[in-house]
């Protein structure tokens, strides 16, 4: 079996560097009866939205199997577990707290803490309650204020028990894929302006929700046990198809549109300059004071990275992405491009003087996994982790402040519009039986994590 190795004396081998695995609520929890319906429940019911016509009603049945899953997490030897909370499992449609749902997360965090595993919580990973979507969803400014209320409930219940709280996971996907491209929930809305207008307005209200929630969290959570507060964004280096001026300009436009549209307002209180290049009908409505609310101090930035994206000029939209080709693509059709992780980290570090410490909060690959005699030989995934951990090492060596790395994902799960056709997990899930099987990638990471712990204990014994 292949191993994952790190350079001698790498920062990634230090005991202070946090290693973890990550999941999200809708993708693994199941137990639809225990929460309010969300936009993904509705989206799954629509024809031709999910590749295998599946849904998240059961998913990985984590709600009922969480104790076994905690055992699995601990068996891996990780320092931390990153997961999201289902808004609709905590807040009912009438605004009351669902104490049964909230207590599930309290029990989960307490069990992890008892086993020495940090909890890194994300408040929103795309599963907006349908009762809010019925009132306009992220196109409705009021949703941002309801999000802050929800954040306060979670802060009161879990704030002193967790290591970090991220407001949002990948608002790009919620806004662009959900409202603009229409390939994620809830899909483009009728009578709400152009798709670009919807995407930009949803993005603005998500950013506003982030700022409002951070303000409230900082008021509620202070002192020695206060968690780190931040956000999780996805990034992809934007490369031109050719060296032509038009393609290079398209790649730069895409970089600002996809990568900087979310981070720059948080760090500087301004949108990228392409905001002014958009047609006035496509720009978001911004009220006085909004940008100051969005521009809140961040304790950390979560960076999700999977691959790079290549762009070419498009007169109508400014850019078009070019699908990856060639050998060695993932089952998602993505190129494996580890050096892109180093590249985007260095780009952000050099562009923003106030860039906070970084955690790699998602990094992983979908492969065609087969479980044969209780073994899954996912060599491609082992190689992927090896190359991307070295990319993180290279970024640190060049001065980027990176504090941790979370593999995506702990287990195979519901992969949004792809349904259950894509397997990102380091643990194989047989959906018919819900049996979990460690893939060889999990064993390789386990060896890396446990070897680091043994090395640290040996040094302590010598000292």
TrEMBL record:
Output the InterPro entries linked to this UniProt entry: GH (IPR017853), Glyco_hydro_1 (IPR001360), Glyco_hydro_1_AS (IPR018120), Glyco_hydro_1_beta-glucosidase (IPR017736)
Q: Give the EC number(s) listed in the UniProt record.
A: 3.2.1.21
**TM stretches of this protein:** none
Q: Check the record and name the Pfam families matching this protein.
A: Glyco_hydro_1
- Record keywords, A-Z: Carbohydrate metabolism, Cellulose degradation, Glycosidase, Hydrolase, Polysaccharide degradation
- Any Gene Ontology biological process: cellulose catabolic process
| SUPFAM superfamilies (UniProt xref) | (Trans)glycosidases
Listed under catalytic activity are: Hydrolysis of terminal, non-reducing beta-D-glucosyl residues with release of beta-D-glucose
Q: Name one GO molecular function term.
A: beta-glucosidase activity
Signal peptide, first to last residue? none
Residues recorded as binding substrate, renumbered to this chain, are 27, 125, 169, 306, 408, 415-416
Class of this enzyme: hydrolase
Which residues carry out catalysis?
170, 362
Stated family: Belongs to the glycosyl hydrolase 1 family.
Q: Could you identify this protein by its name?
A: Beta-glucosidase
**Lineage, top ranks:** Bacteria, Pseudomonadati, Pseudomonadota, Gammaproteobacteria, Alteromonadales
């Amino acid at each position: 079996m292949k191993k994952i190795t790190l350079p001698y004396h790498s920062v990634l081998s230090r005991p202070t560097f946090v290693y973890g695995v990550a999941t999200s609520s809708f993708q693994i929890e199941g137990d639809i009866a225990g929460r309010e319906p969300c936009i993904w429940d509705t989206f799954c019911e629509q024809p031709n939205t999910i590749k295998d016509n599946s849904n998240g009603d059961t998913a990985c049945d984590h709600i009922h199997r969480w104790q076994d899953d905690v055992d699995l997490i601990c068996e891996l030897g990780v320092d931390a577990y990153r997961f999201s909370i289902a808004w609709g499992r905590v807040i009912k449609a009438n605004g009351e707290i669902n104490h049964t749902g909230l207590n599930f997360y309290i029990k989960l965090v307490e069990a992890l803490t008892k086993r020495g595993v940090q909890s890194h919580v994300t408040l929103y990973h795309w599963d907006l309650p349908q009762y809010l979507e019925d009132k306009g969803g992220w196109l409705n400014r009021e949703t941002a204020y309801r999000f802050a209320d929800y954040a306060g409930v979670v802060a009161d219940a879990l704030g002193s028990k967790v290591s970090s709280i991220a407001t949002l996971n990948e608002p790009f996907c919620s806004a662009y894929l959900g409202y603009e491209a229409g390939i994620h929930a809830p899909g483009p809305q009728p009578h709400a302006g152009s798709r670009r207008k919807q995407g930009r307005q949803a993005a603005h209200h998500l950013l506003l929700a982030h700022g409002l929630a951070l303000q409230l969290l900082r008021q509620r959570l202070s002192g020695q046990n206060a968690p780190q507060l931040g956000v999780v964004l996805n990034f992809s280096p934007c490369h031109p198809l050719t060296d032509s001026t038009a393609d290079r300009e398209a790649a730069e436009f895409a970089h600002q549109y996809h990568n900087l549209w979310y981070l720059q307002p948080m760090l500087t209180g301004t949108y990228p300059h392409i905001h002014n290049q958009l047609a006035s009908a496509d720009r978001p409505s911004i009220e006085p004071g909004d940008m100051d609310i969005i521009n809140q101090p961040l304790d950390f930035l979560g960076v999700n990275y999977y691959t790079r994206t290549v762009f070419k000029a498009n007169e109508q939209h400014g850019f078009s992405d070019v699908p990856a080709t060639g050998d060695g693509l993932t089952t998602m059709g993505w190129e494996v491009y580890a050096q892109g992780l180093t590249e985007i980290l260095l780009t952000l570090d050099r562009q923003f003087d106030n860039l906070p410490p970084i955690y790699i909060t998602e990094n992983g690959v979908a492969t065609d996994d087969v479980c044969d005699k209780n073994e899954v030989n996912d060599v491609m995934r082992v190689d992927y982790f090896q190359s991307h951990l070295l990319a993180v090492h290279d970024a640190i060596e060049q001065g980027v402040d990176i504090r941790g790395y979370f593999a995506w994902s702990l287990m195979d799960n519901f992969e949004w519009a792809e349904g259950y056709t894509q397997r990102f997990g380091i643990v194989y899930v047989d959906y018919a039986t819900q049996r979990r099987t460690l893939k060889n990638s999990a064993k390789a990471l386990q060896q890396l994590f446990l070897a680091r712990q043994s090395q640290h204990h040996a040094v302590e014994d010598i000292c």
